[in-house]
Each structure stands twice: as structure tokens, then as C-alpha cells.
């Protein structure tokens, strides 16, 4: 949003050109969100004509990743925190989750963190055992999950899933090995 930012995405937004929600979030969140988008695009089994990749937003619920947004939209997202006790966040997510839960055979894969309740608590209300997450996420940090997702896409190898409702959601990270420079 800074006038000093010279990268193409910032320039487009300041000129009033919309970008996709996925593009903006991938830039803001880096590797992890880019991995989520690539993985969801590759392995989604959504019906033709519908967006299989939905993004949890702070104030608009579950929004298709290809939705065009503006600088004003980003500013509105920034004005609301992702807290389950904030109805500006919770109500739109609950509304959209309830709508999706009515679809027969809807499989919902959460590619966000399951360690805290900020996403899980509201989504479990609608999806219950149908809310799944990649088992390999256990004990990994954001960047590790992002690279795992990108590797799965590159190798065309979908990850195994387990229900969030019955998973152990708080994990101790394993010790890191190797040399960090």
C-alpha cells in the first residue's frame, strides 16, 4: 500500500487494477499461501463451473481465490481480526460453511493451521467429520507446510487426509537438523 513499493502487484493495485484474491494473499503470505493455492488448484475435485479453491477472509467469509479485489478490499480485510469471538469474522465464515455443507458429498480440505481454533472452531460446526486436513501437516510450521504442498504438486502426489475433529491438534515441533546459513 506504500507509495514507495515498486513491485508490479503494488503498482497495479495503486492504479486501480484489480488482482485476484489468491494473487494478493500469495504475495502477502509468501511460500505457504502459494503452496496452498497450487495444491488446491491441482487436486480440487469441485464440479465444473464452480471454484474449488476458497479462501478464508477476515470479513467476507469463504471467497473464491479467483475473485478480483482492489486496494480498498485489502484495506477492509486488514480492519478485521481473525478471532472466533468477532462476529465480523465468524458470521460470514459460518454462513458460507453452512451453505457448502448442504452440498452432497462435499469434501472439505483445510490447508490452514489446525493447531489453533481460529479456523477450525467455526468450520467444524458445519462440516464435522467432513472437515479434513493433510496428516503430514502435523508438527510442521507454515513454511514447511508450504514447501510440502508445492512438492506434492510437482510430484503429482496428493497427500493423505484425516478428520480435524478427531486429530490431535497441538503438536510439538521436531528438532531441526542440518546447517542453517
Topology of this structure?
Elements (H helix, E strand, L loop, with lengths): L7 H7 L4 E2 H9 L1 H13 L10 E3 L5 E3 L3 E2 L1 H8 L8 H15 L6 E2 L7 H11 L3 E4 L7 H13 L6 E3 L18
Parallel strand pairs: 5-6
Antiparallel strand pairs: 1-4, 2-3, 6-7
Helix pairs in contact: 2-3, 3-7, 5-6
Q: What would you say this structure looks like, in words?
A:
- Helix content is 42%, strand content 10%.
- With 181 residues, the protein is an alpha+beta fold.
- It has one domain (8-163).
- The strands form 3 sheets. It has a 3-stranded mixed beta sheet. A two-stranded antiparallel sheet has the order 1-4.
- Helix 2 crosses helix 3 (31-43), helix 3 packs parallel to helix 7 (142-154) and helix 5 packs parallel to helix 6.
- The two termini are 32 Å apart.
- The model is unreliable at 171-181 (pLDDT under 50).
Quick structural overview:
This protein has 181 residues and is of the alpha+beta class. Helix content is 42%, strand content 10%.
Radius of gyration: 17 Å
What's the tally of helices?
A: 7
Share of residues in strands: 5-15%
| Strand order across the largest sheet | 5-6-7
Q: Total domains, how many? A: 1
Average pLDDT taken over every residue: 85
Largest sheet: 3 strands, mixed
**Residue windows where pLDDT falls under 50 for at least 5 positions:** 171-181
- CA-based shape: globular
Structural class category: alpha+beta
β-strand number: 7
Helix content: 40-55%
Output the helix-strand order.
Answer: HEHHEEEHHEHEHE
Straight-line distance between termini: 32 Å
